[in-house]
Design brief:
This protein is mostly helical and 351 residues long. It has helices at residues 5-12, 23-50, 72-96, 101-114, 121-146, 153-173, 178-192, 202-225, 231-249, 258-270, 278-303, 309-321, 333-350; strands at 326-327, 330-331. The chain has 13 helices and two strands, in the order ααααααααααααββα. A hairpin with a 2-residue loop joins β1 (326-327) and β2 (330-331). The longest helix is centred in the N-terminal third of the chain and has 28 residues, at 23-50.
């Protein structure tokens, strides 16, 4: 059944760390309590939604949108590439008055948008080009060699069902060519293009298939001219963003809470999860882990119960001194040395 806060507290109470517990036990306990609070809050909202009527209104607590923290430079570059490719294809179709320009424009737009987030767009576009060429040859043989002799639907289904089954089995048996077989299965229907009544026009068939192939080819050309940024540049931009958000964590009133900053770090790291550059991915992960651990230390200091107001002022002074150490470009050596001296002086004064 559904658990309430009291029953969850009774379940996890035996796991509570004693006063002299190891720091790893304390860290596990805090994460467990945080997860339980999230679980209970989510369960409460799910029950309210399930039991709501048609006129029920909710005041859902606001949450920061992680999708806003994207690589804006890369997104702008992808937008420029897509715009140039579509303008080029559209201008070419208008000037030549080509009837199949719509197919080329559609495929070019899909490729520019779909493969802009791909770790290897040229490999994906080459695979799609192979798929379209093979399907053009295959659909030509099927349409003008087989379908001209088919008069009933059951005859076509008798041909199509074993074909799709065989292609799906080949996809499972050949993992290296699974992408090719998958695209062949997906795009085959649009190439055979069964109509009622059937239309067998060589010119329109070849024109439409040629338009699809040219659309993918022009998208490939757009990626070659306006190539995506390297993973190393993307990693550096994400690292600078993490440093900037960490500097905000050191302010008196940070924009993000401890858990929001943690989600933000994981979001930036996930942006390069499919990267082919292991070094760039590793450096982003290192900076994310280091800054996340530092932020946990800062928030632990903020939650520290001081016995007197002067100690809290000393704590706030120590946190403010750290702001000059970190910037978007990294750790500043001169402020670091002076900050260490000041912190040592404060420690000596407290002792």
């Amino acid at each position: 059944g559904s658990a309430d806060a009291l029953s969850v507290a009774r379940i996890i109470a035996p796991l509570a760390p004693p006063a002299d517990a190891d720091y790893r036990h304390i860290a596990f306990w805090k994460r467990l309590r945080y997860f339980c609070r999230l679980y209970l809050e989510s369960s409460r909202w799910l029950r309210r939604i399930e039991n709501a009527s048609a006129i029920t209104e909710f005041n859902v607590p606001s949450a920061p949108a992680l999708a806003r923290h994207t690589d804006q430079a890369e997104a702008l570059w992808n937008g420029v590439r897509t715009f140039c490719a579509l303008v080029m294809v559209g201008a070419w179709g208008i000037s030549t008055q080509w009837q199949a320009c719509a197919a080329a424009l559609t495929l070019a737009a899909i490729c520019c948008v779909l493969y802009s987030v791909s770790p290897s767009p040229f490999k994906s576009l080459t695979l799609l080009m192979r798929t379209l060429i093979l399907l053009s040859l295959f659909s030509f043989v099927v349409k003008f060699g087989l379908m001209v002799q088919i008069t009933d639907l059951w005859q076509f289904l008798l041909f199509l069902f074993p074909l799709l089954t065989t292609m799906q089995l080949l996809k499972l048996q050949m993992p290296k060519l699974a992408g090719l077989w998958g695209q062949l299965i997906v795009f085959m229907g649009s190439f055979i293009s069964v109509t009622n009544p059937p239309v067998y026009d060589y010119a329109s068939f070849l024109n439409d298939n040629l338009g699809k192939i040219i659309g993918v080819g022009l998208a490939w050309l757009a990626f070659a001219i306006i190539s995506p940024g390297s993973d190393a540049r993307k990693s550096r931009r994400h690292i600078r963003a993490l440093r900037r958000h960490f500097v905000d964590q050191l302010s008196r009133r940070p924009q993000h809470s401890e858990h929001e900053f943690e989600s933000l770090v994981y979001h930036h790291i996930s942006q390069l999860s499919n990267s082919q550059d292991a070094l760039a991915r590793r450096w982003l992960l290192r900076w994310g882990v280091v800054l996340l651990n530092c932020s946990h230390v800062v928030w632990q200091l903020r939650e520290w119960e001081t016995r007197s107001d002067p100690l809290s002022q000393v704590r706030d002074l120590c946190i403010s001194l750290l702001r000059d150490v970190m910037s978007e470009r990294g750790v500043q050596q001169r402020p670091l040395a002076s900050t260490l001296q000041e912190l040592q002086r404060i420690c000596d004064a407290l002792n």
